[in-house]
Amino acid sequence: MIDKYFTYAILVDIFIASLITGICCWLVAICLLPIPNSDFLFSTTSDIANVAFTSAGFVLTFLTLFVSFKASAKPIKKKKKETRESAYKVVSLFELFLHSELYLETIRHLKNGVKELILIALLGYSLKLLIGSVFIDFLFYYDIFGLIIISMTLWRSLLILTGVLKIEKREKEQTKSI
Protein backbone atom coordinates (compact mmCIF):
# COMPACT_ATOMS: atom_id res chain seq x y z
CA MET A 1 0.00 0.00 0.00
CA ILE A 2 2.81 2.40 0.88
CA ASP A 3 4.43 1.65 -2.50
CA LYS A 4 1.26 2.75 -4.28
CA TYR A 5 1.22 5.91 -2.19
CA PHE A 6 4.79 6.70 -3.23
CA THR A 7 3.95 5.99 -6.88
CA TYR A 8 1.21 8.64 -6.86
CA ALA A 9 2.27 10.68 -3.84
CA ILE A 10 1.37 14.17 -5.07
CA LEU A 11 -1.97 13.04 -6.48
CA VAL A 12 -2.84 11.24 -3.25
CA ASP A 13 -1.84 14.32 -1.22
CA ILE A 14 -4.03 16.56 -3.37
CA PHE A 15 -6.92 14.10 -3.23
CA ILE A 16 -6.81 13.77 0.57
CA ALA A 17 -6.40 17.54 1.05
CA SER A 18 -9.25 18.25 -1.37
CA LEU A 19 -11.48 15.68 0.31
CA ILE A 20 -10.92 17.11 3.78
CA THR A 21 -11.26 20.67 2.49
CA GLY A 22 -14.50 19.66 0.75
CA ILE A 23 -15.82 18.17 3.98
CA CYS A 24 -14.98 21.41 5.79
CA CYS A 25 -16.74 23.37 3.03
CA TRP A 26 -19.84 21.20 3.52
CA LEU A 27 -19.66 21.68 7.30
CA VAL A 28 -19.51 25.46 6.77
CA ALA A 29 -22.47 25.28 4.40
CA ILE A 30 -24.63 23.49 6.99
CA CYS A 31 -23.42 25.86 9.74
CA LEU A 32 -21.55 23.26 11.81
CA LEU A 33 -18.17 24.86 11.24
CA PRO A 34 -17.84 28.63 11.55
CA ILE A 35 -15.33 30.56 9.45
CA PRO A 36 -13.00 32.63 11.65
CA ASN A 37 -12.70 36.40 11.30
CA SER A 38 -10.53 37.95 8.58
CA ASP A 39 -7.65 38.95 10.89
CA PHE A 40 -7.31 35.36 12.08
CA LEU A 41 -7.49 34.06 8.50
CA PHE A 42 -4.77 36.44 7.25
CA SER A 43 -2.56 35.53 10.21
CA THR A 44 -3.09 31.80 9.73
CA THR A 45 -2.42 32.07 6.00
CA SER A 46 0.90 33.78 6.73
CA ASP A 47 1.75 31.11 9.29
CA ILE A 48 0.97 28.28 6.87
CA ALA A 49 3.00 29.92 4.10
CA ASN A 50 5.93 30.43 6.52
CA VAL A 51 5.73 26.82 7.68
CA ALA A 52 5.70 25.67 4.05
CA PHE A 53 8.82 27.70 3.20
CA THR A 54 10.59 26.54 6.37
CA SER A 55 9.67 22.91 5.74
CA ALA A 56 10.85 23.21 2.15
CA GLY A 57 14.18 24.38 3.56
CA PHE A 58 14.47 21.33 5.80
CA VAL A 59 13.58 18.91 3.01
CA LEU A 60 15.99 20.73 0.68
CA THR A 61 18.74 20.33 3.30
CA PHE A 62 17.95 16.62 3.52
CA LEU A 63 18.10 16.43 -0.27
CA THR A 64 21.43 18.28 -0.34
CA LEU A 65 22.90 15.81 2.16
CA PHE A 66 21.91 12.91 -0.06
CA VAL A 67 23.47 14.53 -3.11
CA SER A 68 26.64 15.26 -1.11
CA PHE A 69 26.84 11.65 0.08
CA LYS A 70 26.41 10.46 -3.49
CA ALA A 71 29.11 12.82 -4.76
CA SER A 72 31.59 11.60 -2.14
CA ALA A 73 30.74 7.90 -2.53
CA LYS A 74 33.27 5.75 -4.30
CA PRO A 75 32.05 4.02 -7.43
CA ILE A 76 31.46 0.31 -7.04
CA LYS A 77 34.00 -1.47 -9.21
CA LYS A 78 34.47 -5.16 -9.50
CA LYS A 79 37.88 -6.61 -10.10
CA LYS A 80 38.65 -9.02 -12.90
CA LYS A 81 37.32 -12.50 -12.24
CA GLU A 82 35.17 -11.14 -9.38
CA THR A 83 31.45 -11.70 -9.40
CA ARG A 84 29.04 -8.86 -8.83
CA GLU A 85 27.88 -10.45 -5.57
CA SER A 86 31.39 -10.65 -4.14
CA ALA A 87 32.05 -7.02 -5.16
CA TYR A 88 28.85 -5.94 -3.39
CA LYS A 89 29.86 -7.72 -0.19
CA VAL A 90 32.83 -5.37 0.15
CA VAL A 91 30.78 -2.14 0.11
CA SER A 92 28.31 -0.94 2.72
CA LEU A 93 24.55 -1.13 2.35
CA PHE A 94 24.39 2.66 2.31
CA GLU A 95 26.83 2.78 -0.60
CA LEU A 96 24.71 0.20 -2.41
CA PHE A 97 21.69 2.44 -1.78
CA LEU A 98 23.55 5.44 -3.22
CA HIS A 99 24.27 3.47 -6.41
CA SER A 100 20.81 1.95 -6.75
CA GLU A 101 17.61 2.96 -8.50
CA LEU A 102 16.10 3.51 -5.05
CA TYR A 103 18.42 6.49 -4.56
CA LEU A 104 17.11 8.16 -7.70
CA GLU A 105 13.52 7.52 -6.63
CA THR A 106 14.25 8.93 -3.18
CA ILE A 107 15.72 12.08 -4.71
CA ARG A 108 12.66 12.40 -6.96
CA HIS A 109 10.28 12.18 -4.00
CA LEU A 110 12.24 14.74 -2.01
CA LYS A 111 12.41 17.14 -4.98
CA ASN A 112 8.66 16.79 -5.51
CA GLY A 113 8.11 17.46 -1.82
CA VAL A 114 10.11 20.69 -2.03
CA LYS A 115 8.13 21.74 -5.10
CA GLU A 116 4.86 20.98 -3.32
CA LEU A 117 5.83 22.98 -0.24
CA ILE A 118 7.06 25.98 -2.23
CA LEU A 119 3.86 25.97 -4.29
CA ILE A 120 1.75 26.00 -1.11
CA ALA A 121 3.81 28.88 0.30
CA LEU A 122 3.60 30.93 -2.89
CA LEU A 123 -0.12 30.25 -3.18
CA GLY A 124 -0.66 31.44 0.39
CA TYR A 125 1.20 34.69 -0.08
CA SER A 126 -0.45 35.28 -3.46
CA LEU A 127 -3.91 34.75 -1.98
CA LYS A 128 -3.10 37.05 0.88
CA LEU A 129 -1.96 39.80 -1.50
CA LEU A 130 -4.59 39.44 -4.19
CA ILE A 131 -7.78 38.30 -2.49
CA GLY A 132 -10.58 40.78 -2.09
CA SER A 133 -12.81 41.09 0.94
CA VAL A 134 -15.60 39.29 -0.90
CA PHE A 135 -13.52 36.12 -1.25
CA ILE A 136 -11.94 36.17 2.21
CA ASP A 137 -13.52 32.79 2.99
CA PHE A 138 -11.15 31.18 0.46
CA LEU A 139 -8.29 31.79 2.89
CA PHE A 140 -10.01 29.42 5.33
CA TYR A 141 -10.08 26.66 2.72
CA TYR A 142 -6.50 27.40 1.67
CA ASP A 143 -5.42 27.11 5.31
CA ILE A 144 -6.99 23.67 5.63
CA PHE A 145 -5.68 22.50 2.25
CA GLY A 146 -2.18 23.89 2.88
CA LEU A 147 -1.93 22.36 6.35
CA ILE A 148 -2.82 18.92 5.01
CA ILE A 149 -0.38 19.16 2.07
CA ILE A 150 2.41 20.28 4.41
CA SER A 151 1.65 17.44 6.83
CA MET A 152 1.54 14.81 4.09
CA THR A 153 4.78 16.04 2.51
CA LEU A 154 6.62 16.04 5.83
CA TRP A 155 5.21 12.61 6.65
CA ARG A 156 6.49 11.30 3.30
CA SER A 157 9.93 12.80 3.97
CA LEU A 158 9.93 11.19 7.40
CA LEU A 159 9.11 7.81 5.85
CA ILE A 160 12.07 8.22 3.49
CA LEU A 161 14.38 9.19 6.35
CA THR A 162 13.18 6.21 8.39
CA GLY A 163 13.95 3.90 5.46
CA VAL A 164 17.48 5.28 5.13
CA LEU A 165 18.06 4.95 8.87
CA LYS A 166 16.90 1.33 8.71
CA ILE A 167 19.49 0.68 6.01
CA GLU A 168 22.22 2.20 8.19
CA LYS A 169 21.02 0.26 11.25
CA ARG A 170 21.06 -3.00 9.29
CA GLU A 171 24.56 -2.18 8.10
CA LYS A 172 25.80 -1.61 11.67
CA GLU A 173 24.21 -4.86 12.81
CA GLN A 174 25.88 -6.74 9.98
CA THR A 175 29.31 -5.29 10.76
CA LYS A 176 28.92 -6.20 14.45
CA SER A 177 28.11 -9.80 13.57
CA ILE A 178 31.22 -10.15 11.40
Explain this structure to me?
The protein is mainly alpha-helical. The chain has one domain (2-177). The chain contains 7 helices and no strands. The longest helix is centred in the last third of the chain and has 41 residues, at 137-177.
In short:
The protein is mainly alpha-helical and 178 residues long. It has helices at 2-7, 9-29, 38-72, 84-90, 93-98, 101-130, 137-177. Helix 2 (9-29) packs antiparallel against helix 7, helix 3 packs parallel to helix 7 (137-177) and helix 6 (101-130) packs antiparallel against helix 7.
User: Which structural class fits the helix and strand makeup?
Assistant: mainly alpha
The SSE order reads HHHHHHH
Distance between the termini: 35 Å
Mean pLDDT: 87
Largest sheet: none
* β-sheet strand percentage: under 5%
Low-confidence stretches: none
Helix content: over 70%
Annotation, overall tally of beta strands: 0
Radius of gyration: 22 Å
Separate helix tally: 7
Features:
about 180 residues; mainly alpha; 7 helices; about 80% helix; about 0% strand; elongated
